[in-house]
Specification:
The protein has 8 helices and 11 strands. The protein is α+β, with helices and mostly antiparallel strands and about 260 residues long. The chain has a 4-stranded mixed β-sheet, covered by helices on one side. A 3-stranded antiparallel β-sheet has the order 1-2-3, with helices on one face. A hairpin with a 2-residue loop joins strand 1 and strand 2. Helix 6 crosses helix 8. It is flat, with a radius of gyration of 28 Å.
Length: about 260
C-alpha cells in the first residue's frame, strides 16, 4: 500500500514538473536575484553577462523572473524527490520484518489482538462507548427516537431515525473540541466501510436573522478546523415555509454513505 502511494506521488511530481516546464517557456530567460542595501532592495537581472537593475515601475518583469527562478528550483527539488522514490521502489519490500514476526508469535497474538480488531468490531465498540453529551438545556430534548436518543426537534428525529434504519454507527450531540472549545454537532457518524468520521448539522430556523448569522459563524469555525461541507460535514437547512423532508435526508445518506 505504501509503495502504491509512492507511485501516485511520483506521478504527481512528474505532472508538476511538466506544468512548470511549460510555464518556463513563456517567461523571460535572464537570471535574476535581489540584493539588499540597508532598507532598500534592488531587482537585478543579467543581460549578456552584465548585471542590470530593473526599475520598480517594471514590477511585472521582476515578478516573471522571480517566478522563473522559483520554478527552476522547484523542478530541481521535485527531481531529487523522484530519485529518492525510485531508489526506494527498486529495493525489495520488507516482508518478514521484526514487527511481522512479533504478530506471528502466539505469546503476543492475544495481547495485541485489541489493536488489530476489524473495522466492524471497532465501529461497534465505538457506538456502544459512553461520550460527553451536550449539557445545555437537556429539558428541550424530549422526542425519543427508535435509536434510544432523546432529540430536540422533529427534523432531528427524522435524521436520527434514518441513520438508525440504515444501521450507520452514530452519536447524537457528542462533544467535539476545537481549539479547546466544546461544540456539539447534531450527529457524529462513522462511515461503515472506511471508518471516516462525518458530522451532520441541521439548521432549522434559517428565516431567523440572528440564528442564520450564528449558523454562518459556526460554519466558519468548522471551516477553520478543516471540517468542510460536502467533504466531512453534512448540512441540512429549513425555514418555516420550507421544512426538512425525508427525501433530502435519504439523498444525503445515499451521497455520503452508499
Amino acid at each position: 500500500m505504501y509503495r502504491h502511494k509512492l507511485i501516485l506521488l511520483r506521478n504527481t511530481y512528474l505532472q508538476e514538473i511538466h506544468t512548470l516546464e511549460q510555464e518556463i517557456t513563456m517567461l523571460p530567460t535572464e537570471s535574476f536575484f535581489i540584493c539588499k542595501n540597508g532598507s532598500y532592495s534592488k531587482w537585478i537581472q543579467t543581460l549578456n553577462g552584465n548585471q542590470v537593475t530593473i526599475p520598480k515601475k517594471n514590477r511585472k518583469l521582476a515578478e516573471k523572473l522571480a517566478y522563473r527562478k522559483y520554478a527552476l528550483l522547484r523542478i530541481h527539488d521535485l527531481t531529487q524527490e523522484i530519485k529518492s522514490i525510485d531508489k526506494y521502489l527498486k529495493s525489495p519490500p520488507l516482508r518478514n520484518g521484526k514487527s511481522s514476526s512479533l504478530l506471528k508469535n502466539p505469546l503476543y497474538t492475544e495481547l495485541l489482538s485489541p489493536y488489530f480488531q476489524s473495522l466492524d468490531q471497532e465501529l461497534s465498540n465505538w457506538s456502544k462507548m459512553t461520550y460527553e453529551h451536550n449539557p445545555h438545556h437537556p429539558e428541550y430534548a424530549t422526542l425519543k427516537s427508535p435509536s434510544g436518543h432523546l432529540v430536540r426537534s422533529k427534523s432531528e428525529l427524522l435524521i436520527d431515525m434514518a441513520l438508525f434504519q440504515h444501521q450507520l454507527p452514530f452519536r447524537y450531540e457528542c462533544q467535539l473540541l476545537l481549539s479547546g472549545i466544546a461544540f456539539y454537532p447534531d450527529f457524529t457518524i462513522r462511515h461503515p466501510k472506511s471508518g471516516k468520521t462525518f458530522y451532520w448539522e441541521h439548521f432549522g430556523m434559517m428565516n431567523n436573522l440572528n440564528y442564520s448569522k450564528k449558523t454562518f459563524e459556526k460554519l466558519q469555525i468548522y471551516n477553520n478546523h478543516n471540517i468542510l461541507p460536502d467533504f466531512n460535514l453534512i448540512t441540512t437547512y429549513e425555514t418555516t415555509n420550507h421544512p426538512l423532508n425525508l427525501d433530502v435526508i435519504e439523498n444525503k445518506i445515499e451521497f455520503f454513505f452508499s
